[in-house]
Design goal:
The protein has 164 residues and is mainly α. The chain has helices spanning 2-40, 50-58, 60-64, 71-86, 91-100, 105-113, 119-133, 138-147, 152-161. The protein is 75% helix and 0% strand. The chain is elongated.
């Protein structure tokens, strides 16, 4: 029952973020993002021989110079911040959610790592959320947080911070 409730809440959040995030994000920076995403994702938009070359030229820049953030990386950071403002996530869980939203693995990792999350605080929030629904032993709650993608250290910190 708990798993079904958690899945239902997660799906509800995904649908609400998709509905809200799509209109707000597109209005703010619609034209630049569309142009950049065509250059970065030629297979999804218009496969041309010139476009993959543009993608190859852009890949070394973000890794060599972090301030040169691509449009898809900026979108991933924005989406990560939106998710974190609604629900606690582990780093792994957030990466998986961003990938589910259609971000590449690299962009999902970038979004999770640059979304401003304190993973220990996220573990506390998730532990508190679980305790709001039901009672858990300390070890069961730690196992549950690890299953959610937190490291054992983050899970123990979260459970302690939630009062167990």
């Amino acid at each position: 029952m708990k798993k079904l409730l958690t899945i239902f809440i997660a799906l509800l959040l995904v649908f609400s973020l998709s509905a809200c995030g799509g209109s707000a994000d597109n209005n703010d920076e619609e034209k630049p993002q569309e142009q950049d995403s065509v250059a970065q994702e030629p297979v999804a938009q218009e496969p041309e021989t010139q476009e993959p070359a543009a993608q190859d030229n852009e890949d070394p820049e973000p890794s060599a110079n972090d301030p040169a953030e691509t449009a898809s990386q900026a979108d991933a950071v924005s989406k990560a911040k939106a998710y974190l403002s609604i629900k606690p996530f582990s780093r792994t869980g957030l990466i998986n959610q961003l990938e589910y939203e259609g971000f590449s693995n690299a962009d999902a990792i970038y979004g999770a790592d640059n979304g401003g999350a304190d993973w220990n605080e996220q573990a506390i929030k998730m532990a508190e959320d679980y305790l709001d629904y039901s009672s858990f032993s300390r070890s069961d709650l730690i196992d549950l947080l690890i299953n959610e993608g937190f490291t054992p250290e983050e899970a123990e910190y979260g459970v302690s911070g939630a009062g167990l």
